[in-house]
Amino acid sequence: MRVNAMTSRYAQATRKAMTLRLTAGEYEALRDRARAERLSMQHVVRRALRAHLDFISHQDKVAEATDKILASHAEALDRLGNDAT
Amino acid sequence: MTRRLRPTLVHTIDFEDVMFVLRRLNGVDPSLTHAVRINSEVSKVQRRIEDISKDGTYVSVYIQAAMLLRHLTHYCLTNKSDIRIAWLLVAVLLEVNGFSVSHASSDQIYEIVRTISTADPSAHQIADVLRTIAESLK
Asked: Which range of residues forms the domain containing residue A39?
């Protein structure tokens, strides 16, 4: 418990503040979502940001892995492709 | 409290990934129908793995990859579909989860897929081969 409290205080102390400018439509959508889930708008924004960054990171990994396999197993893939024709 | 001591798959393959991999493999946008069908087959295996895992049975990363490779290879053969996607998706799945197989020789990869399509080894037998490849780097 003590460790958790210390971690939480550390997280609070190391948080960075920034101004987020939204269109009226985006603001209303964010406010409505936060109200519907009984969360703060900040919480909803941070959750969306984390989800987006995870998504992009996953896409990057898939792209990198695909290119790596296509290059290293090009010959095997060619042979498998030729077998089918 | 539950503790996860064994390696598991953090990243799974979704529709966007299937579209991407097909596009990279063929150099053109894949047909939506083909991508949906391949993704549907991937999802079937992922659901089966979830079902097996529900009662606490541990399904190793290699067994999961082997189940997917076996299923996709047979799907491609049955439906006269491009069999290359079977290996490519499984290799990408292993790579993005930190289990590298890219160092395997092309002969090894060709033999694995041909053996699955002709001799139909079990998922455990395929998993052993995948494990040997991935762990030969360590």
From this structure: 20-84
